[in-house]
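Fold it.
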Amino acid sequence: SGPVLLAIDARGVATATLNRPERGNAYDEAMLAALIGGLDRLAADTKVRALVVRGAGKHFQAGADVIWLGEAAAYPPERAYAASHATTEAMRKLNEFPHPTIAMVKGACFGGGVGIVCCVDVALAAPDALFGITEIRVGVAPTPISTHMINAIGLRQTRRYALTGERFGAAEAVRIGLVHEVVAGDMEARLDEVLDAIMLGAPGAIAATKDSFLGANGLKLDARQVALLSHE
């Protein structure tokens, strides 16, 4: 039970399942705290070789819970900042996770769900996956995920979809570089193929490669950047 379920199999493949299916796995403070804590524990676990992120039920992740957003609108400034900071930190930790990360996207993937997809190394989508950077439609700005969206799909596409809130399908997600593949067949079989490829690599070399890619290209967030992205 809990808003994020963690598991590690015999190969060292960890799975983080976002677990609020009754709310489309929309996040609130409890889910963000569980995700941050879970990522910290998995990053420190020497058995882990890769991380798969999933959503329980029909959907991947439907962004921020609108009920929680309504409550958060009445938060005092310090608590409101802390909530935004938690979103920024969760995305930072996923982006900088030391092992390969894979998102298995089905159903709705809105707002912060798009941010998660932008922060993983491999994104696989079902043909019926539906995407949208929809924060503006509930009166908030997608600042905590903005850097990751620009890194993944470029400023041009981020400007369009973040400012219009348009929804788009899996084929468009591939075209703009948000996801790597639309898997028309068995997604689990395709996941196994990707994991098999990862397991052929040397863990130390993989970790060094990922760290150098992010570090040498200025894609790791420092405390000042996290603070700026958390401001609303």
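The chain has a mean pLDDT of 95.
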